[in-house]
Structure formats: structure tokens, C-alpha cells
Design goal:
Blueprint (H helix, E strand, L loop, with lengths): L3 E4 L2 E4 L4 E7 L8 E7 L6 E6 L5 E3 L7 E6 L4 E6 L8 E8 L21 E2 L3 E6 L1
Parallel strand pairs: 2-11
Antiparallel strand pairs: 1-3, 3-8, 4-5, 4-9, 5-6, 7-8, 9-10, 9-11
């Protein structure tokens, strides 16, 4: 088991910033690929960003240039810095860990945006952006 816990959500005005954190247990955290997804009311869960064990990153087009994903392996933590927030960013944000893909091509199994590749998920943290 790899507990995954998100934090840092909240209410912010449009144009503001928030930083989400995701702590994942495990002595091999540095080998995990990590991803952020979000789900707005009445909508399907969607990919936001991901970071490989190597440090490579991927972003959804809707957040490119505004969001930045990073990791601190010493703290077993992944961050999502969200700037220039828009009301349409309002959602529950989920962090997920892929513990099985170390050493494999990132674009196997549907790529970093495929939720099927992630085997551990957090409970989510609410982000609300007011207009």
C-alpha cells in the first residue's frame, strides 16, 4: 500500500495562485511517476499534469503556462503550483502514484494522462476559484 495524501486546496479569486502538495509513502518514492487529475461537478475526471521519476513533465493543454508540477524526493512530495487561476479550474484535485512504470517508456500504457496507469490515489482536495 502507498498512502497518497493531498493538501493545499482552498478558495481563491480568479487570477490568484495556490500550491497543492501530495505526500506519498514508500521507500522508493523516487521511482514513482506522479500525476494530478481533477474532477469538476458533473464532469469526468481529467488529467492535469504528471512528473516522471526522471523529472520529465507533461501538462494538459488547458493548464500549460499556468501550472507547474515539481517533486522533492527527499520529502516524498509532489507539488502543483497553480497560477492565474480561472473559475473553470474549480474542481476536486486528485494526486495519483504510478509505482509500476519505473524504467519503462512513459508513453506505454496510454501515456502520463491515462488514469489506468496509476495504482494509488488520494482522497482529493477541493479548489474553488471565484470570479
Amino acid at each position: 500500500q502507498v498512502p497518497v495524501v493531498e493538501s493545499g486546496g482552498g478558495l481563491v479569486q480568479a487570477g490568484g495562485s495556490l500550491r497543492l502538495s501530495c505526500a506519498a509513502s514508500g521507500r522508493t518514492f523516487s521511482r514513482y511517476d506522479m500525476g494530478w487529475f481533477r474532477q469538476a461537478p458533473g464532469k469526468e475526471r481529467e488529467f492535469v499534469a504528471a512528473i516522471r521519476w526522471s523529472g520529465s513533465t507533461a501538462y494538459a493543454d488547458s493548464v500549460k503556462g499556468r501550472f507547474t508540477i515539481s517533486r522533492d524526493n527527499a520529502k516524498n512530495t509532489v507539488y502543483l503550483q497553480m497560477n492565474s487561476l480561472k473559475p473553470e479550474d474549480t474542481a476536486v484535485y486528485y494526486c495519483a502514484a504510478d509505482t509500476r512504470s519505473y524504467g519503462y517508456d512513459w508513453y506505454d500504457l496510454g501515456g502520463p494522462s491515462s488514469s489506468d496507469r496509476y495504482d494509488y490515489w488520494g482522497q482529493g482536495t477541493q479548489v474553488t476559484v471565484s470570479s
